[in-house]
Specification:
The chain is α/β, with parallel strands linked by helices. It contains five helices and five strands.
Length: 132
C-alpha cells in the first residue's frame, strides 16, 4: 500500500469514558497507522461526516454506555446513505456477547471486548481492509 492505513477512532453517544479509545488509538498509531480521534460524545452523523472528510479506511467505535445496538448500526446505515462502502467498521467496548451477532448482522465487521490484545485488533484491520 502506498499510504498508511487511516483509522477514525470515535466515541458515539453520551459515554464519557475514553481510556480504551485512547489506548487503541495509540496502539494503531504505533503500528504505523494514521489515527484521527474524534473525541467524546459524537453523534452518528458527526462520525459519518468525519469518515468522509478524513477519507479513512477504518471506523473504530468505542462504546461503554449500553447504546451500542442503536448507535453502531446507525453509523453503518448513514455510511450506506452516503454511498460509503469501502470502509471497514469495527466496534469495541463493554458489549455483551449476546449482542455481538446482532451488531454483525447490522454491518459491524467485528467487535472487540475488554481484554482483547491490541495486536488482535491491528491484525484484524490489516487482514480485512476494504480499500484497493
Amino acid at each position: 500500500m502506498d499510504r498508511p492505513i487511516r483509522v477514525l477512532v470515535a466515541k458515539p453517544g453520551l459515554d464519557g469514558h475514553d481510556r480504551g479509545a485512547k489506548v487503541i488509538a495509540r496502539a494503531l498509531r504505533d503500528a504505523g497507522m494514521e489515527v484521527i480521534y474524534t473525541g467524546l460524545r459524537q453523534t452518528p452523523e458527526q462520525i459519518v461526516s468525519a469518515t468522509i472528510q478524513e477519507d479513512v479506511d477504518v471506523v473504530a467505535m468505542s462504546i461503554l454506555s449500553g447504546a451500542h445496538n442503536t448507535l453502531l448500526p446507525k453509523v453503518v446505515e448513514l455510511l450506506k446513505v452516503e454511498n460509503v462502502d469501502d470502509v471497514l467498521v469495527i466496534g469495541g467496548g463493554v458489549i455483551p456477547d449476546d449482542d455481538i451477532p446482532f451488531l454483525k448482522e447490522k454491518g459491524i465487521a467485528e467487535i472487540f471486548t475488554p481484554g482483547t490484545p491490541t495486536s488482535v485488533t491491528i491484525d484484524y484491520i490489516r487482514a480485512n481492509l476494504k480499500r484497493k
